[in-house]
Automatic annotation (TrEMBL):
GO terms for molecular function: DNA binding; DNA-binding transcription factor activity. This is Unannotated protein. Residues 16-83 form the HTH gntR-type domain. Transmembrane segments: none annotated.
Length: 250
């Protein structure tokens, strides 16, 4: 007897598409400061702005809450999360030092021809020259950074490590800090100096290119199946990143 294929209702597909579109648009509004850190998020206003119903807006906000960009409080509703504090920034890097070197080591031990192909493809995307003072170029560097570290976590074969890394949303938070500096939206003077120094130290004077060189060293070690070098290179890379921020973080 031939099995009857169950069709997904067109209305469900349409809602899913609208949810994806709403998610992308609201996320862009948050990272570009159209929705400022800590500000309330009004579902009715977003529904009117994006010309869609409240259902996809609510679904999008739930996803953004999982991303750490939105928070929901009882009786208060939704609001955009605040930027990382200095202590949270330091804690983030210490956490990465615990899990990412191990992930790189495991990735090297588990390397396959397909994994090699994916790593090489990602590294080939970095050949374009980075112009540090251009927001779009900085965004491209941040996106590569996020993809690369996520890929290493995935190649470790540990769902727990991959999930733990994704929950930090570290590169998304860094891009928000960058936009705060570019748009001068941080009122507290000491915090403004932190953000300004953060990006002058890390992404000016060729430091962005240095990060890519360090990524290449990690990728080469993983591709070669050299687990010891992969672990060591990843640890050194994260420490190096933190040191490049050091004058602002201390």
């Amino acid at each position: 007897m031939m099995a009857v294929k169950q069709q997904v209702p067109k209305s469900s597909v349409r809602t899913s598409v609208l949810s994806d579109e709403s998610y992308g648009k609201i996320k862009e509004m948050i990272v570009t400061y159209e929705i400022a850190p800590g500000s309330r998020v009004n579902i009715d206003a977003l529904s009117l702005r994006l010309k869609t119903s409240q259902t996809p807006i609510r679904e999008a906000l739930a996803r953004l809450e999982a991303d750490g960009l939105i928070k929901k409080e009882p009786l208060k509703g939704y609001s955009a999360t605040n930027l990382l504090t200095l202590n949270e920034f330091q804690d983030l890097f210490q956490f990465r030092l615990l899990i990412e070197p191990w992930a790189a080591e495991q990735a090297a031990q588990r390397i396959t021809p397909e994994s090699k192909r994916i790593l090489k493809l990602e590294m080939s995307s970095t050949k374009k020259t980075i112009k540090q003072k251009n927001v779009d170029e900085f965004k491209s560097l941040t996106e590569h950074d996020a993809r690369f570290h996520k890929l290493v976590a995935q190649l470790s074969g540990s769902k727990s490590v991959e999930s733990a890394f994704e929950r930090t949303h570290c590169h998304l938070h860094l891009f928000r800090l960058f936009m705060a500096h570019k748009l001068h939206l941080i009122e507290n003077n000491s915090r403004a100096k932190f953000v300004e120094g953060l990006f002058e130290q890390y992404y000016q004077n060729g430091s962005g290119q240095l990060a890519i060189i360090e990524h290449s060293g990690i990728a080469d070690a993983i591709i070669d199946g050299d687990s010891k070098a992969a672990r060591s290179n990843m640890y050194s890379h994260i420490q190096s990143s933190l040191k490049r921020f050091s004058s602002s973080v201390q």
